[in-house]
Q: What sequence folds into this?
């Protein structure tokens, strides 16, 4: 337990130190998010926060995690996500379809080098496709969600906390270390990223955080749900167990679904940036940026608490909790749809 605490502290202190340096470097290299009619901020903001998180996270993980196949795969592919995102942050425009294909390529490479993938089916290539698709989805979902000060980094901190608790419950020591280390890195960064933010994650940071949350979800096993799986006649635990991390990741998943459905109904390009996300609509209700982000933090805590309640549930409790999540999902869809977004 002491190792986990020290890793958290090193990542936290590292992030507190490296983030101002990344901010300075971002100004020097002119890697800035310029204000515009689709942006909330009014002045240029540095975009190299993701690099600060990655450096502090990697430093702590290398010290305490050793050099296992999984760890090397995470760090190496993390570098690829960060560097590729940095191209966009630096003003090199890459079409959305090319980003998707690149993220898929990184994901397949990650699976090959790390050995981390789903085990839904006996056929490996199906598991690989599903794993790569999920990693790509989460990387882009977190990128899309990154629209307000402290939103992505705070959601990642809270989600990582719940993953750490669940990993501790299931005895997955490597997952405990990785998730707690990311908690430290994101918490330190929040010191500078919470409203009013002096530095942003950038695409490098948001896609990296999405990649890491996807890895947590893939690795997590909820052994307490074997009873539910056997009662349903399911031979592979992950078919049931994977619903728990999906609940923890409910905010970016919901936001992506919500934006895509609304843009489809209004015949708007999916790749077009705009202020039609769930957090923008909450902001339209009269909430300040801080209040909007804190509201989503509270929802994240509720979702994480439901996930924790599921780990030793019987069949009836399991489906009752799933029903609660489903009701929230439908309710928020209807509620947020009543508020017209800014021009998209």
A:
């Amino acid at each position: 337990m002491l190792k986990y605490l020290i890793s958290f502290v090193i990542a936290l202190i590292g992030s507190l130190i490296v983030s101002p340096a990344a901010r300075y470097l971002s100004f020097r290299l002119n890697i800035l998010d310029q204000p515009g009619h689709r942006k909330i901020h009014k002045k240029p903001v540095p975009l190299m926060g993701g690099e600060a998180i990655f450096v502090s996270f990697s430093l702590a993980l290398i010290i305490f995690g050793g050099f296992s196949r999984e760890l090397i795969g995470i760090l190496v592919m993390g570098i690829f996500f960060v560097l590729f995102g940095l191209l966009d942050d630096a003003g090199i425009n890459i079409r959305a379809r090319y980003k998707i294909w690149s993220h898929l390529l990184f994901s397949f490479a990650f699976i090959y080098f790390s050995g981390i993938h789903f085990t839904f089916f006996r056929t490996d290539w199906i598991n690989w496709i599903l794993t790569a698709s999920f990693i790509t989805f989460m990387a882009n979902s977190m990128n899309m969600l990154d629209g307000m000060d402290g939103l992505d980094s705070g959601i990642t901190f809270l989600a990582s906390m719940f993953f750490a608790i669940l990993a501790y419950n299931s005895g997955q020591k490597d997952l405990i270390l990785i998730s707690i280390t990311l908690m430290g890195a994101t918490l330190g960064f929040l010191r500078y990223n919470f409203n009013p933010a002096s530095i942003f994650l950038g695409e490098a940071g948001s896609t990296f955080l999405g990649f890491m949350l996807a890895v947590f979800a893939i690795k997590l096993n909820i052994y307490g749900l074997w009873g539910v799986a056997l009662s349903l006649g399911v031979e592979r635990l992950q078919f049931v167990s994977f619903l728990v991390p999906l609940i923890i990741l409910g905010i970016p998943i919901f936001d992506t679904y919500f934006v895509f459905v609304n843009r489809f109904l209004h015949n708007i390009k999916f790749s077009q940036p705009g202020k039609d996300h769930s957090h923008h609509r909450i902001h339209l209700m009269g909430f300040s940026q801080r209040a909007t982000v804190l509201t989503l933090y509270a929802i994240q805590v509720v979702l994480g608490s439901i996930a924790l309640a599921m780990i030793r549930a019987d069949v009836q409790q399991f489906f009752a909790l799933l029903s609660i999540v489903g009701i929230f999902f439908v309710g928020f869809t209807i509620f947020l749809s009543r508020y017209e977004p800014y021009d998209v």
The chain has a mean pLDDT of 91. The first strand starts at residue 32 and ends at 33.
